[in-house]
């Protein structure tokens, strides 16, 4: 499995911004698709954004235009820039691969107050 460690979460007011980081245990250059997910209390874990090795991205409709996913293969890091945050963005955010099973990390808590 690929070990991934999320960080950068915190408490922000609505309209604020936050940048999440995901550090991988090894090279991510060979991982075709990496993604951010989130899970709010009582809800399923949902896909937020995904990015390919070529830089192609897609986003959940709920975050489109507000969030930006990026990857730095040289630093083995995945990023999620979150802007114009809303209370409904409150959740634990996770990073992971797509296309094959990999264990989930602890995630990082994002709380947006109104």
Gyration radius from CA atoms, angstroms: 13 Å
Oligomer: single chain
Number of helices: 0
Neighbour order of strands in the largest sheet: 2-10-9-4-5-6
In terms of structural class, how would the helical and strand content be classed?
mainly beta
What is the number of strand segments? 10
What composes the largest sheet? Answer: 6 strands, mixed
Low-pLDDT windows of residues: none
Described by the principal axes of the CA atoms, the overall outline is globular
Helical amount among residues, as a percent range?
under 10%
Description:
The structure is a single chain. With 114 residues, the protein is an all-beta fold. Helix content is 0%, strand content 50%. The chain contains no helices and 10 strands. The strands form 2 sheets. The protein has a 6-stranded mixed β-sheet, with no helix packed on it. The chain has a 4-stranded antiparallel β-sheet with strand order 1-3-8-7, with no helix packed on it. It is globular. The chain starts with a strand and ends with a strand. The model has no long low-confidence stretch (mean pLDDT 95).
What would you say about this model in short?
With 114 residues, the protein is mostly beta strands.
Give short descriptive properties of this protein:
114 residues, mainly beta, 6-stranded mixed sheet
């Amino acid at each position: 499995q690929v070990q991934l460690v999320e960080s950068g979460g915190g408490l922000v007011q609505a309209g604020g911004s936050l940048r999440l980081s995901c550090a991988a245990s090894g090279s991510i250059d060979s991982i075709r698709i990496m993604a951010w997910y989130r899970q709010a209390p009582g809800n399923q874990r949902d896909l937020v954004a995904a990015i390919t090795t070529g830089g192609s991205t897609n986003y959940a409709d709920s975050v489109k235009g507000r969030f930006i996913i990026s990857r730095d293969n040289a630093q083995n890091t995945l990023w999620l820039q979150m802007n114009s945050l809303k209370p409904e963005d409150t959740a634990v955010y996770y990073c992971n691969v797509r296309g094959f099973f990999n264990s989930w990390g602890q995630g990082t808590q994002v709380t947006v107050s109104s």
